[in-house]
TrEMBL record:
It holds the Pfam family Impact_N. It comes from the Bacteria. GO terms for cellular component: cytoplasm. Belongs to the IMPACT family. GO terms for biological process: regulation of translational initiation. This is YigZ family protein. Residues 22-127 form the Impact N-terminal domain.
Amino acid sequence: MLKKDEYKSLTTPSKEVVFKDKGSKFYGYAFPVQGETDIEQALEQLKSQHHKARHFCYAWQLGKTYDNYKANDDGEPNNSAGVPIYGQLQSFEVTNCLVVVVRYFGGTKLGVGGLISAYKTTAKMALEQTKIHTHTIDKQIQITCEYKLMNEVMRLVKDLNLNIIEQDLKIHCKFIISIRQNDFNKVKSRFEQVYGLEVKILE
């Protein structure tokens, strides 16, 4: 179960998978994507690769908070293709991800139930062929201080297990520090309690 400040994404595209049912072939693919341009490029690539296929059904999800998504049946009966694919994105808890299932019709109709099962199974197979990584949603603060306070900042960074993104150690030191969203207010408060540190939230 993901925490509120965590999200999962793919580290690599999937290998091609194939599911067959009553002569129809379903080719499944999962891609890491950052936006709709990546999605369009992946779909164009598959359409040139499978120029004789009848259906390119897909679902995608974008954003660290899973707030942007779309499912497309591409000519299949309503909710028989895009929604089952999207259901697998939810099941695997992945975002910034596109799953496409390309169908070659085999001459025998599968019915809506058969289609739902085929698209769901193919999407699941594709996602099982990827590597999935869990990320944290982080915020950043900038700490500015005189050089004599540098050790105090470093001690807090170590004690609180934080990541320094940038540092500039001169007469006046500057640190940019990454903090997990869930811990942000508590950690920011710890720095603010040290006299002489200037703490600024970075958007």
